[in-house]
Amino acid sequence: xxxxxxxxxxxxxxxxxxxxxxxxxxxxxxxxxxxxxxxxxxxxxxxxxxxxxxxxxxxxxxxxxxxxxxxxxxxxxxxxxxxxxxxxxxxxxxxxxxxxxxxxxxxxxxxxxxxxxxxxxxxxxxxxxxxxxxxxxxxxxxxxxxxxxxxxxxxxxxxxxxxxxxxxxxxxxxxxxxxxxxxxxxxxxxxxxxxxxxxxxxxxxxxxxxxxxxxxxxxxxxxxxxxxxxxxxxxxxxxxxxxxxxxxxxxxxxxxxxxxxxxxxxxxxxx
Length: 271
Known about the structure:
Elements: E1 5-8, E2 14-20, E3 27-31, H1 45-48, E4 53-57, H2 74-87, E5 93-98, H3 100-111, E6 116-122, H4 130-146, H5 152-159, H6 162-167, H7 169-181, H8 184-194, E7 210-215, H9 223-232, E8 237-241, H10 248-251, H11 253-270
Parallel strand pairs: 3-4, 3-5, 5-6, 6-7, 7-8
Antiparallel strand pairs: 1-2, 2-4
């Protein structure tokens, strides 16, 4: 079991992270989805650490991290990631982010491209329209009335198909624990960070190497949506896992690790 470290942020947040793999290997940062923690990568991690120096961290108010408040922006989340990289003396890395983590990665690709050797943006969107924002506000209403326990089953239903949930009872038990253990302030802060998200018009400015990864059955970030993002990012590639829902590292760990290892190897060779 790797040792968990913490860094304190200026706004009172406290970010937990772990660092594993050979010290001289290519650096990779894994950025979690909303309402998850580092354990979402448990199935992928053993397939990465023989080849990569892997930094995992919990977003503010998730897992072992503390939220300074119930407010945050995507820039705040991106700066948390950079601060953890700094704590690990990691000047550049390939960032692999799922959902919220992918949005965080896109923000860094736009604002701090010098820190990214590449970006693997998975199961994410570049915009959240009025209907999407209404859905998130409805979830915040459930949170206020019932706490995180009231969001567990609906979250799993959005993330995984019925067949996937039935086929993986152990994984679903872990995800129920993870979602239910997310702090209300952390969930709220990260939801507010993505409400009204409008990165679509900025994607053409991204110049770092990008791989986009979609799940064929992902209703939250469809292959069509991610394909439209790929069309706007010069030189990007789109991969679609089928079958796969919203949390690709859990549902398809072997394929996820294969694609990420290939991407990292390609990026390392071109440095």
